[in-house]
Amino acid sequence: MLEKDKLDGYFIAVDGPNGVGKSTLIEAIKNKLEVLGYAVYITREPTDTKLGNFLREFAEKHSGISLACLVAADRYEHMTNEIIPALEEGQLVIVLTANSEIIKPDLQLAVFADERVLQKRLSERDTLTRFEKGNQSKSELDFMERGIIELRKYNIDVMNIYNNDNLEENVEKVVSYIVNNWRKV
Fold it and tell me: Quick one: pLDDT at residue 136?
C-alpha cells in the first residue's frame, strides 16, 4: 500500500446513494476551487477505461465475489494510472464513489438526501442501473451510516453533506474545509 502522506496532493472520496446529487455537488466544488486557484482532478469509479466500461456493462450479470473482483481490478488500475499520478503532481483529486483503502482519503464526503428527494431524482432518469431500480434508498442510507462509523474507526475524516436543495451551501461548506485544511497548489 502506498503511503498517502508521501504524496503532495489532497484526496477526497465522495460516496452516497444513487440520485443524491454527487455529480452535481462535485462539479460545483471543482468550479469553486478552480476559481480559488486550486488544481482539481475529478474522476469516478467504475472508470471510463475499457475495464470500467466492461464492469458497467456486465454488472447486471455478476454478483458476489466475481463482481467484487471486477470492481477491485478497476479500482487498482484507477489508482495506478490516474489517482496516484495526479496526487504526485500535487493536485486535489476528487473521486466519485471511491471507498477503498488503497489510499485513505484526506476527506470522505458522505452525501445524503431525503428518501423522497432520491426517488424523485431517480424517476427523472431515462435509464436505471440494477442498483437504482426498486426502492433501495432506505437501505443505501442505512448502509452509509454504518460505513461512516467504520471509516471513523480508521481516523478518516468524514463530512456528512445533506444534499436536498441546498447545493450552494454544501459547496461553501466543503470548499471552506479544503481551504482551511490544505495548501493552495
Answer: 58
Neighbours of 181 (CB within 10 A): 11
CB 72 within 8 A of CB 65: no
End-to-end CA distance of the chain: 25
C-alpha cell belonging to residue 75: 479500482
pLDDT of amino acid 1: 43
Q: Cell 431524482 sits at which residue?
A: 121
3-state SS, residue 14: strand
Q: Nearest 5 degrees, angle CA 173-CA 112-CA 155?
A: 70
Which residues of the chain fall short of a pLDDT of 50? 1, 100-101, 185
Residue count (the chain): 185
| Claim: this prediction has a pTM higher than 0.70 | yes
